[in-house]
Amino acid sequence: MKKRTHICCKMRVFGGFACLLVVAAFGAVKGDITDGNPEHLKREHSLMKPYQGVGSSPSSQWDFSGSTLVSTSYVRLTPDERSKQGSIWNTVPCYLKDWEMHIHFKIHGLGKKNLHGDGIALWYTKERLNPGSVFGNQDKFVGLSIFLDTFRNDLQGMDRSFPFISAMVNNGSVSYDHGKDGRASELGGCSAEIRNREFDTYLAIRYSKGRLTVMMDVDDKNEWKECIDVGGVRLPTGYFFGASAATGDLSDNHDIISMKLYQLMVEHTPEEENLDWTKIEPSVSLLKSPKDNIDDPTGNFRSTPLTGWKVFLLLLCALLGIVVCGVVGAVVFQQRQERNKRFY
């Protein structure tokens, strides 16, 4: 009886230790997603009040075009007027392999439900300051874009609600399909209430070791919620960060309050370090079929690739299950041995 009690105690201790590992791992990942460490802030790639260094002079680090208005409180890409488009771009190419961009934005206007548009696009691309049809920027771009789309064009796509946040990686060969809200080329996305909020709204874009993660804080809870997480993404260094917006027959104020870029301290293999990252072609190796881009009740996509901590939890649970089965098997075997001794 003492042996069985001792074994059960061991099982409880191991189970408790495993739970602590799970909690610690989850907490570490949550804290690491957007730490916002000021020491890692790259000011040459950041846009902050009072927006010094914005303009067309040779020393400027940010340049703007179109309807963009720079005030002391915000950068307004478009006013709440029809047929406007504007953009703001970092003039310094980014050579960081691993980075995270925090965007403080505000979309607001007088238009009632479904009578506003079109939204904001955030860019990391080879070229900059090229106005066009994709939220105020050129089509068939080369690089990454995150779309904050506030207007539904595809009336048949009623399986998702708008505003909708999505991501696209392009090597210059794919055209963004406005009529279908870009569904054929998106990597993933989620619905989010980001318009006419009475509090601050934020987005975080992380790229590290081939994984693209987009988080949002739009519910005044001061916490990040995952929107997009996809692996197999290849992005080069030497591209430019920017933001653009456009209005059509419907309109909104599209404001950028800040864009803060943080360097992520990540170790790479010697092979990765010796690679010429400027020669990488933007691509994604884990693309889903567009028919899989269907919202679930939580607002996230099905078929989202497992993140690192999810894989860790699955492996830990599997290991815990094996150990528990082994201990239970040992207890059952010992009971049978004791039962057999009674017959001799």
Describe how the helices and strands are arranged.
Elements: H1 2-33, E1 62-66, E2 69-70, E3 75-78, E4 85-90, E5 99-108, E6 119-125, E7 142-149, E8 164-171, E9 189-191, E10 201-208, E11 211-217, E12 225-230, E13 233-234, E14 240-246, E15 253-263, H2 270-274, E16 283-284, H3 308-341
Antiparallel strand pairs: 1-4, 2-3, 3-15, 4-14, 5-10, 5-15, 6-7, 6-14, 7-8, 8-9, 10-11, 11-12, 13-16
Helix pairs in contact: 1-3
Structure commentary:
It is built from three helices and 16 strands. The two termini are 21 Å apart. Mean pLDDT is 83; it is low at 1-34 and 288-307. The protein is 21% helix and 28% strand. With 344 residues, the protein is an alpha+beta fold. A seven-stranded antiparallel beta sheet has the order 1-4-14-6-7-8-9, with no helix packed on it. Strands 2-3-15-5-10-11-12 form a seven-stranded antiparallel beta sheet, with no helix packed on it. The chain is globular.
